[in-house]
Amino acid sequence: QVQLVESGGGLVQPGGSTRLTCAASGTSILAMYSMAWYRQAPGKQRELVAQITGDGRTNYAESVKGRFTISRDYGTITVHLQMNSLTLDDTAVYYCNADFMVKTGRDDYWGQGTQVTVSS
User: Fold this and answer.
1) Tell me: the pLDDT tens digits for 38-56?
2) How far is Cα 48 from Cα 15, in angstroms, rounded to an integer?
3) E strand spans, the chain
């Protein structure tokens, strides 16, 4: 089975920084097409925040460009989201998403989510 384990987040002051990590595990993973971070604020739809592909290309939501950076660890299936200059609007549950080729075919996976609260 594939598991995505998220860590990081918590309470951060406006203007502050935090880093999220998503570590994937599973003996059935054959390749990574992409991994991404989504977020969902109360009363809003889940939205894409940042994505990184297997060959290292990145994509960001306009609202986080220049403030957030997604990166990956080569050798392990781990991605990080460095979040700087946080604002109240960044408060949300952040979910890790992965698009993997596994032994049974291509599939999509989600983490449980980690809360990021920006507040003074």
Assistant:
1) 999 999 999 999 999 999 9
2) 21
3) 3-8, 10-12, 18-25, 29-40, 47-53, 58-60, 68-73, 78-83, 92-102, 105-110, 114-118
